[in-house]
Design a protein that fits this description.
about 30% strand; globular; GMP Synthetase, Chain A, domain 3; single chain
Length: about 140
C-alpha cells in the first residue's frame, strides 16, 4: 500500500456497551448507527447496510446533478431508490432512478450510464482492499 499518501476521508466508529448504538465520525460530522430492535439494537440510527446504500445513493445523485447541470438540462429533481438483497450468497443492489424534468429517452439512457460511473459505484464494483490492523 505504498501508493496511498493522504486519505480521501477519515471515519471513526466507536461503540460502548450499549447494544448496538455506534457513534460514527466522518471528517467533521457525527451520526449514530444502530441495529433494529428485532436483532437487539435500539434502532437509534440507520444500520450499516443502510449507510452503505446511503453512500451509493447520495454519490449517484450528486454525480447525476453535476452532469445534468453541466449539460444544462431542465431537471428539477433527481431520486435514487436503492434496495439491498442477499441472493444465493451474493449481495444484489437494485438502483432505480427518477427524474422530474424534460428528458428524452436518449438522455435518460445516458443518465443510467452516468449513474454507474459515480465514484462509490466504481469502488463497490471494483477491487477493494481492506487492511485491518491494531492501533
Amino acid at each position: 500500500m505504498e501508493n496511498i499518501k493522504e486519505p480521501v476521508t477519515s471515519v471513526q466508529a466507536q461503540i460502548g456497551r450499549s447494544h448496538y448504538r455506534t457513534v460514527v465520525k466522518i471528517d467533521n460530522h457525527t451520526l449514530i448507527s444502530d441495529e433494529p430492535i428485532t436483532i437487539g439494537g435500539m434502532n437509534e440510527g440507520p444500520h450499516p447496510q443502510g449507510l452503505l446504500l446511503a453512500s451509493l445513493g447520495s454519490c449517484t445523485a450528486i454525480t447525476l446533478r453535476m452532469y445534468i447541470d453541466r449539460k444544462m438540462w431542465a431537471v428539477d429533481d433527481i431520486t435514487v431508490d436503492l434496495q439491498l438483497f442477499e441472493v444465493d450468497g451474493a449481495t444484489v443492489i437494485e438502483k432505480q432512478l427518477g427524474f422530474k424534468g424534460e428528458l428524452s429517452e436518449e438522455q435518460k439512457r445516458r443518465l443510467v450510464q452516468i449513474a454507474d460511473a459515480c465514484p462509490i459505484h466504481k469502488m463497490l464494483t471494483g477491487e477493494i482492499i481492506i487492511d485491518t490492523s491494531l492501533q
